[in-house]
Amino acid sequence: MVTGENLRIDGDRLWDSLMEMARIGPGIAGGNNRQTLTDEDAEARALFKTWCDEAGLSMGVDQMGTMFMTRPGTDPDALPVYVGSHLDTQPTGGKYDGVLGVLGALEAVRSMNDLGIKTKHPIVVTNWANEEGARFAPAMLASAVFAGVLTQDHAYSRTDLDGKTYGDELKRIGWKGDEEVGTRKMHAYYELHIEQGPILEAEGKDIGVVTHCQGLWWLEFTLTGREAHTGSTPMDMRVNAGLAMARILEMVQEVAMAAQPGAVGGVGQMQFSPNSRNVLPGKVVFTVDIRSPDQAKLDGMRAEIESRAAAICADIGVGCAIDPVGHFDPVTFAPELVGNVRKAAEELGYSHMNLISGAGHDACWAAQVAPATMVMCPCVNGISHNEAEEISREWARAGAEVLFRAVLETAEIVE
Ligand code: GLV
Ligand code: MN
Ligand code: MN
């Protein structure tokens, strides 16, 4: 008989799976480089599938490469509860960003099997393709297509730095499924994730009850100057795209600081062309990433950055094109599901607090098509998108256990 007391997961089994997955696509400093649609991604998918087969799950794969692993429910008419995250990583990523959410969902299902729990609603453990957006912008690409926000053609045409397309790479690794994207209907969506920020650890809390996610714009700038010799070109004859970029970087910092509290802005990727020590760059491409939970503030920052960038470029004589390659509005998660997460943490005796997610997640797009929410656990010093990303076995267990209970609440245990 299933009682509240024995609704526990196997934290050691979860940890062992996390460590085994981390062996695929090792980084150079203890983390992972398992970028989307690489051979390493394919290897991770195969391992995950093996584990899902062992847990008795059946697989569906959609045309974006997202994996849906189903544990049947008892009611043929009941829509599934989806639980997932992503197995792809940043180029210098950690072992837990995304992976904890996928393997935590798998652990929840394994524990249901151990305990002989049947649920009314099916449960679908989900590995979304290209959450990170490191190789193909934007982030959360497959869930955006699933939610109908981006088209599959647009997604397939996205290119990496070598000019390879999403569509070609998906076929190459053998994970283009046949399911039409977005035709599945969800009863609810849950996602477990590490916080990727310092708040839970600083506050000494085990669990973040995620009520909102901040919105984002990724603005890809292409600045066009004139390639010229760095030694023989007089200062007043230069059309230096690199100088314009430097001024824009400083300006983005000013705009984000002026919008405090509750706003961030920065640049994580830039390409100089031709990138030679003694050639002034003729072309510079970089992406500004701005975020805020406040819609008006987010859009105001974008407008100010675009107009000030235009003035900076005009002053230097540099051409300026801006392509908004990634966007989502701030998200409010479903109160009923948020309540289930809080209740689960309380029943299990874990300390908890409300959180606004600073990072984007597939849950943000799932929230467009179903009630959705997230569970967060702390990470050491708030470090993420860094190979040094670390969590404790206890934090992982607590997060997965809260996920397990909240999912059961929604999927409804059948006695
Ligand atoms: C996704 O990982 C993001 O928040 O950039
Ligand atoms: Mn993630
Ligand atoms: Mn990430």
From TrEMBL:
Gene3D superfamilies from the UniProt entry: 3.30.70.360, Zn peptidases
Binding of Zn(2+) 2, residues: 97, 132, 385
Peptidase M20 dimerisation domain residues: 214-312
Note on cofactor: Binds 2 Zn(2+) ions per subunit.
GO molecular function, one term: metal ion binding
Pfam families on file: M20_dimer (PF07687), Peptidase_M20 (PF01546)
Keyword Glycosyltransferase: no
Cofactor: Zn(2+)
Residues that hold Zn(2+) 1 according to the record: 86, 97, 193
Keywords: Hydrolase, Metal-binding, Zinc
Family statement: Belongs to the peptidase M20 family.
Protein name: N-carbamoyl-L-amino-acid hydrolase
Species per Swiss-Prot/TrEMBL record: Salipiger aestuarii
Organism taxonomic ancestry: Bacteria, Pseudomonadati, Pseudomonadota, Alphaproteobacteria, Rhodobacterales
